[in-house]
Design brief:
Low-confidence stretches: none
Structural class: alpha/beta
Strand order of the largest sheet: 4-11-10-5-6-7-8
Shape: globular
Order of helices and strands: HHEHEHEHEEHEHEHEEEE
Distance between the termini: 22 Å
Helix content: 25-40%
CATH superfamily: LD-carboxypeptidase A C-terminal domain-like
Strand content: 15-25%
Oligomer: single chain
């Protein structure tokens, strides 16, 4: 609980009414409570009409374990805005592409004190229905083009783990956001190969690549960087690809509205992403 207090205090100073989940601080081996406990905690929030957004405390592992329990409650026009990243990719990808429900790929309370001011402000801007514009420097791995489409995605390992399951993500017509942390380069190539063989990549409208943080190579090098590995899977496709987006396992983990239209532009001057506001964002609430 003490780890998330700075984030809660900050949100309260911004005018938001904050409530803590019952499983904050609980532990069941490596998880924050049993599957039943964590699912019940989330379901209670999903059913509470006074809650307009759920800001998940941290990632790690465990979301997929409770999906069968919570899935029947993941419906309706008043569903709270789901905010977080990393392991929350399970919820993002499923809600965005199968349920057509927007979510927010964002920072989490546990990392709040390390966040840049830009990352914090982007989170607030999304909650306040503000439009967002991100601009990135040119990258040798970029592929030029322009497209307007909704964005989904998240952590590459999590997206890979969903392939072939009933919570799999749909690719047709989407801009795919990708980020990864603490992974071996050959693992990354294997996951990208799985996306290709599953028919995901050739159905996309565009690709945005965020942080590829703390990646590892073997004693005998793989032969390409993390960026190079990803770029290799799109160089023969006619779609824009932008590298260097400020989101992922980074201190500058800026927020991305998922499931709403965005304009991706990539050219010789760099790349930009212009996001539409989230229609289901809660806005500022005075207590």
């Amino acid at each position: 609980m003490e780890e998330i207090q700075p984030a809660l205090a900050w949100m309260q100073t911004e005018g938001y009414v904050m409530h803590s989940g019952k499983t904050i601080g609980q532990r069941h081996h490596q998880l924050g409570g049993t599957d039943a406990e964590r699912a019940a905690d989330l379901i209670s929030m999903l059913q509470d009409e006074a809650i307009s957004a759920i800001w998940f405390a941290r990632g790690g592992y465990g979301t997929i374990r409770i999906m069968d329990l919570v899935e029947p409650f993941l419906t309706g026009p008043a569903l709270p805005l789901m905010c977080g990243y990393s392991d929350l990719t399970v919820l993002h990808a499923y809600l965005n592409t199968q349920k057509k429900i927007p979510t927010l790929h964002s920072c989490m309370p546990v990392q709040f004190q390390a966040l840049t001011s830009a990352a914090r402000q982007s989170f607030l801007d999304c909650l306040k229905h503000e439009p967002l514009l991100y601009e990135m420097k040119p990258s040798e791995y970029n592929i030029h083009g322009e497209v307007v489409a909704p964005i989904t995605g998240g952590n590459i390992s999590i997206l890979n783990s969903l392939l072939g399951t009933k919570y799999d993500w749909l690719a047709d017509g989407w801009i795919l956001f990708l980020e990864e942390v603490d992974e071996w380069l050959y693992h990354l190539d294997r996951m990208m190969q799985s996306f290709k063989l599953a028919g995901k990549l050739d159905k996309l409208k565009g690709v945005i690549v965020g942080g590829l943080t703390n990646m590892h190579d073997n004693e005998i090098p793989f032969g390409a960087s993390a960026e190079g590995i990803i770029a290799n899977y799109f160089k023969h496709l006619s779609l824009p690809v932008a590298f260097g987006f400020p989101a992922g396992h980074l201190d500058n983990n800026c927020s991305i509205p998922f499931g709403v239209p965005a304009k991706l532009t990539v050219n010789a001057n760099g790349s930009s992403v212009n996001f539409s506001p989230l229609a289901n964002s809660p806005g500022k609430v005075e207590e």
